[in-house]
Design goal:
This protein is an alpha/beta fold. It has helices at 19-29, 49-55, 70-80, 101-106, 129-138, 151-154, 170-175, 187-197, 218-234, 237-242, 246-263, 268-286, 293-299, 303-311; strands spanning 8-14, 37-42, 59-62, 86-90, 95-96, 114-122, 144-146, 165-169, 201-211. The chain has 2 domains: 8-211, Spore Coat Polysaccharide Biosynthesis Protein SpsA, Chain A (Alpha-Beta Complex); 218-311, no CATH class. Helix 1 (19-29) links the parallel strand 1 and strand 2 (37-42).
Amino acid sequence: MLTNNLKVALCVPVLNPGNAANVLLGSVAQQECQPDEVLIVDSDSDDDSVELFRAAGAKVVVISRTEFDHGGTRQMAVEILPHIDIIVFMTQDAVLAGREDLKKLLACFKDENVGAAYGRQLPFSDAGEVEAHARFFNYPERSRIKGMSDISELGIKTAFISNSFAAYRRSVLMAIGGFPRDLILGEDTYVAARLLLSGWKVAYCAEAQVYHSHDLTLGQEFRRYFDIGVFHGRESWLRREFGQPHGEGARFVKSEFNYLRVRNPILVPFALARNVIKLLAFRLGLMERYLPLWLKLNLGWSKAYWERSASSR
């Protein structure tokens, strides 16, 4: 047990994690305080990770790849763990940075108004400058607790959270309906927004840290932001309640320009072009209802999402 006699589980959805499984298990094993349970939800991996996780003492649930759904799979984990008070979610490519990161994240729940908490993401040592800036911009050095009163300052960033390293009160999750099924992505933001609208707080703990970064190609960035646009287009209530994301995007571009101008000026034109591509993809995603299915299958990252949508018609 990690805090206040609350039972804690760590849950990680995985697909062919390869060596990342060993790295993840190693970072969990070094924690000063251990979770009461580790749950791995495996999407029918081809490698030997299932046996590896089971040998390490984790509970492993195997699902088909077509069954995986960002929100639905996590909600399945929540329902598998009715005896747990706090569920920590990580992704397979995140690595706990030190020995006290779980302890520090879970300390946020000493505040009874906190329904969810997330930690700081640091770039890996081999991350490029563009990816490093994204981590520094989204995960600042100072912790804070966010509530509805912060919307005037933070806008839609009030509901920002990341399931690469986030924890939730299970009772609160269930009270707001849990993670939604059939979202293209953004299940963490969706839940954080519902928590805030229900009067709960979301804590950002800068002292609880994981290494998590990946340098995407321009094509991957386009597909990712197309999916983000689809999410915001279909969940338009987020923009009504928390404001449009455009102001945050402009602030990011300005920050990135200043960051690169000092550290690596030659990347400035590349970064500006990258941001134009991201904006275009986001706009297309917002308008996806006007696009044919075959085009959405080619523009986005989550092909399984569109295939499920087509089969449910």
